[in-house]
Backbone:
């Protein structure tokens, strides 16, 4: 690990023993992250309700199927009278987990009955979970819990603190235990799990903290900071409403342009500690091996960072060290063809970035370093419950499937609208061809003269003079519900539908708008770009 680096202008300020994560082989788990791309939908074809595509599909369905297969006999044996649905079968199997077959236990992430794991008894030896979460850009982990038995819940002592196991309860999933974590017995413990089913990117983001009621000591496990920035090709920007910095997007990520790792951590600290009295920045440190020490799933541009600060808490000085793993991943959209509309690849680039494994350790000034083993033991003791992990993955898979279905429906609507337009134009052309044949027949019956043609001339010349559009042309426009207008973008004429009105505008780049109000213009209707009113072709 690199030595501590001071804040600019203040020299080097070492951060002693800030590498406790590596020494104590810490492991943290977070919700599996699904990479998302925002997909540009042409505003002129508002048939689509979309905005994003998934680069990865949820993988929870395969694991559920494996458990159903491996535990079928156990379910029949122990849970024959339990009504299926709502996770009741899984709950029943959990109640009988000590009696389950080894095949079922293995599928559920439990050790064989012959494997009796020992309880943790010292700072360097508690059993650390093993991650089995699917890899992906900037993914955290909802991994498979460590091989533990009931004896693992026995209390143990380090630095005079007697540790006990606390549960993180998910009230929105029927009071399920989502995770367990060891904290000193005398410390207060609180946790939070909130589901947001509309946020495909971040449906759940657990957090918890433990505090010593006797002094300022505390451990904080924060929600992962997930941000995104979307760069749209210039020709499509008029169709995309720009997101405001700091605004949460429809998939759950917060919109913000990426910044370097230490700057990102500084922003986070200022957001939660910026109002503290006598706030001082003590030091900062690059931790290139932090993600590996925490056993996080690999992701592009991972970079561990730490910052140490001090401030006054209830009139007494405290120190707090913040740790986090920075990630950054860029990806572009694939080429899209919807009817006559097409968008080339990489016309939209999304950057997913943020901080995972966000946590901090706080203690009275001068005691933080020597108390580090207590905090690191809390961090590495976290274990996620197998049943809750399955529930999470099943929900993730369902949300992903629904999202992709809505996106596909949107593109299908565009293609259907294009097909309907093509069919309408084909029938209109057949009608006009029939009118033309009738006109030709009338002229032939009249002896081939110009009387019929002359009668239809708009200048009433009777001889076809003037070179303007004929009354037949205007009648054709009327029947087809179009107006023939001068088009500055081509120097010729353009047939524009008059179903929306008779005041036509163009931006000179092949885009048109029509309004029925004489006072309406694209600008005062919220359109971007430079528009001019089109004139009727002579």
Residues:
């Amino acid at each position: 690990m690199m030595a501590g680096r001071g804040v600019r202008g203040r020299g080097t300020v070492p951060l002693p023993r800030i590498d406790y994560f590596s020494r104590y082989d810490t492991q943290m788990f977070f919700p599996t992250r699904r990479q998302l791309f925002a997909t540009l939908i042409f505003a002129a074809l508002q048939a689509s309700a979309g905005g994003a595509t998934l680069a990865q599909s949820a993988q929870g369905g395969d694991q559920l199927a494996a458990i159903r297969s491996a535990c079928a006999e156990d379910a029949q044996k122990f849970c024959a009278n339990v009504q299926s649905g709502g996770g009741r079968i899984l709950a029943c199997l959990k109640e009988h987990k000590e009696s389950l077959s080894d095949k079922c236990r293995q599928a559920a992430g439990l050790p064989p009955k012959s494997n009796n794991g020992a309880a943790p008894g010292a700072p360097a030896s508690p059993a650390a979970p093993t991650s089995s979460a699917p890899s992906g850009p900037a993914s955290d982990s909802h991994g498979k819990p460590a091989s533990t038995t009931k004896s693992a819940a026995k209390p143990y002592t380090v630095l005079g603190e007697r540790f006990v196991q606390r549960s993180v309860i998910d009230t929105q999933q029927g009071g399920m235990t989502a995770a367990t974590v060891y904290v000193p017995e005398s410390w207060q413990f609180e946790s939070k799990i909130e589901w947001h089913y509309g946020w495909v990117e971040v449906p759940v983001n657990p957090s918890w903290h433990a505090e010593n009621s006797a002094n300022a000591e505390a451990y904080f496990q924060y929600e992962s900071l997930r941000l995104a920035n979307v760069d749209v090709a210039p020709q499509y920007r008029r169709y995309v409403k720009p997101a405001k910095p700091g605004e949460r997007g429809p998939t759950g990520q917060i919109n913000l342009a990426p910044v370097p790792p230490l700057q990102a951590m500084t922003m986070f600290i200022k957001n939660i500690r910026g109002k503290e009295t006598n706030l001082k920045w003590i030091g900062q440190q690059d931790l290139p091996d932090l993600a590996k020490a925490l056993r996080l799933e690999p992701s592009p541009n991972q970079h561990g960072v730490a910052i140490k600060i001090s401030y006054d808490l209830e009139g007494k000085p405290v120190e707090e060290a913040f740790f986090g793993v920075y990630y950054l991943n860029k990806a572009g959209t694939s080429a899209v063809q919807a009817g006559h509309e097409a968008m080339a690849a990489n016309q939209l680039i999304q950057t997913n970035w943020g901080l995972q494994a966000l946590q901090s350790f706080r203690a009275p000034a001068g005691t933080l370093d020597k108390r580090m083993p207590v905090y690191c033991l809390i961090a590495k003791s976290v274990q996620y419950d197998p049943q809750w992990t399955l529930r999470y993955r099943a929900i993730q898979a369902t949300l992903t499937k629904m999202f992709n279905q809505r996106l596909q429906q949107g593109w299908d609507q565009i293609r259907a609208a294009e097909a309907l337009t093509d069919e309408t134009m084909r029938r209109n052309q057949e009608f006009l061809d029939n009118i033309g044949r009738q006109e030709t027949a009338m002229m032939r019956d009249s002896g081939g003269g110009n009387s019929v043609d002359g009668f239809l001339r708009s200048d009433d010349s009777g001889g076809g003079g003037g070179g303007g559009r004929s009354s037949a042309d205007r009648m054709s426009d009327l029947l087809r519900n179009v107006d023939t207008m001068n088009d500055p973008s081509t120097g010729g004429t353009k047939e524009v539908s008059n179903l929306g009105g008779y005041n036509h505008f163009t931006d000179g780049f092949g885009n048109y708008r029509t309004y029925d109000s004489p006072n309406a213009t694209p600008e005062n209707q919220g359109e971007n770009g430079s528009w001019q009113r089109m004139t009727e072709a002579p």
Residues 1-61, 114-152, 448-465 have pLDDT under 50 and may be disordered. The two ends are 78 Å apart (CA to CA). Residues 57 and 400 are 7 Å apart (CA to CA). The chain has eleven helices and 22 strands.
